[in-house]
């Protein structure tokens, strides 16, 4: 598996700038609450009642999502987004799904442990009358900080104490291996200790899943590797289908219109590009609804064939 690295010094500088900016922001006092919403976008899909909560948003250099992309094309893309250039503001959309007797969260945000513009999920759930102790299942698409680090509080106690935690076995084994740091680009190695501590905190409640398994009837796990080795997405039965994905598609313009651009957060870029293309071809052909963790809130829409690639059409 190849590790994606910048093609020139500027890209590496951008990666360092990103990690450095995150560290600086965490060292300063936390931002005050940024206006939590007392409502959440709600819709029904088949047997599933879904509400989309926000954990806030990330701030990353857009060039990290498009390493080596032609500058004029990237500029044109950024002009069409709301983020102040040269940054991207990926959203953090977290679906809460009620089905049968289950209340299921898909990823848990960063718990304010990674970027100060994230970590709103718990407060937002409470504000909307959802008791974190009532969550029965937490599905973890992969183990990056913005998806995982919200599992426990500063005392190390689980924020969702009664849930079982569903994660890919390959993902778990990758991050828990004693030499995982050597598989990561140097600037990402700092996330390993907290990631391992966080996963260790759920060891007694974890359920390993694999491609084809169902979390509950009608909610199927399928592999979308490349971003991390064991990342999966979810396919939910109903109408023409609903796919919930985290970082197989990270940006509603870049990932759809330029799926071959190298995303600096993809651990194995060649695998990630193949995953993106396969997923886009499938959902466009079958008109499957998408819910993307990082698309503009609430992150729901469709992929349409467009030129030699696709475009995202919000639902
Ligand atoms: Zn992410």
Automatic annotation (TrEMBL):
SMART domains: Lactamase_B
Protein name (record): MBL fold metallo-hydrolase
Residue ranges of domain Metallo-beta-lactamase in the record: 91-294
Superkingdom of origin organism: Bacteria
Classification lineage: Bacteria, Pseudomonadati, Pseudomonadota, Alphaproteobacteria, Hyphomicrobiales
Keyword field contains Ligase: no
Family per similarity comment: Belongs to the metallo-beta-lactamase superfamily.
Pfam families named in the record: Lactamase_B
Keywords of the record: Hydrolase, Metal-binding, Zinc
């Amino acid at each position: 598996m190849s590790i994606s690295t910048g093609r020139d010094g500027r890209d590496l500088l951008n990666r360092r700038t990103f990690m450095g900016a995150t560290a600086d922001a965490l060292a300063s006092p936390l931002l005050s609450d940024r206006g939590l919403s007392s409502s959440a976008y709600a819709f029904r899909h088949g047997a599933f009642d879904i509400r989309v909560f926000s954990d806030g948003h990330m701030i990353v250099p857009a060039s990290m999502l498009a390493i080596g992309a032609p500058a004029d094309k990237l500029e044109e893309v950024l002009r069409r987004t709301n983020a102040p250039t040269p940054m991207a503001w990926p959203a953090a959309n977290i679906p809460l799904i009620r089905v049968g007797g289950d209340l299921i969260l898909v990823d848990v945000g960063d718990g304010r442990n990674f970027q100060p513009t994230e970590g709103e999920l718990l407060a937002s759930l409470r504000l909307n009358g959802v008791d974190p102790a009532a969550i029965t299942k937490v599905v973890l698409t992969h183990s990056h900080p913005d998806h995982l680090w919200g599992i426990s509080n500063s005392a190390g106690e689980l924020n969702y104490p009664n849930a079982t935690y569903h994660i890919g076995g390959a993902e778990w084994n990758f991050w828990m291996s004693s030499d995982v740091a050597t598989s990561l680009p140097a600037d990402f190695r700092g996330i390993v200790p907290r990631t391992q501590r966080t996963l260790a905190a759920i060891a007694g409640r974890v359920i390993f899943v694999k491609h084809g398994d169902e979390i509950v009837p009608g909610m199927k796990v399928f592999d979308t590797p490349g971003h991390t080795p064991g990342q999966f997405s979810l396919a939910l039965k109903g109408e023409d289908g609903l796919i919930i994905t985290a970082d197989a598609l990270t940006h509603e313009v870049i990932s759809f219109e330029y799926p071959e651009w190298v995303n600096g957060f993809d651990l194995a870029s060649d695998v990630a590009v193949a995953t993106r293309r396969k997923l886009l071809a499938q959902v466009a052909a079958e008109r499957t609804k998408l819910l993307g963790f990082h698309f503009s809130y609430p992150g729901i829409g469709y992929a349409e064939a467009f030129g030699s690639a696709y475009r995202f059409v919000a639902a």
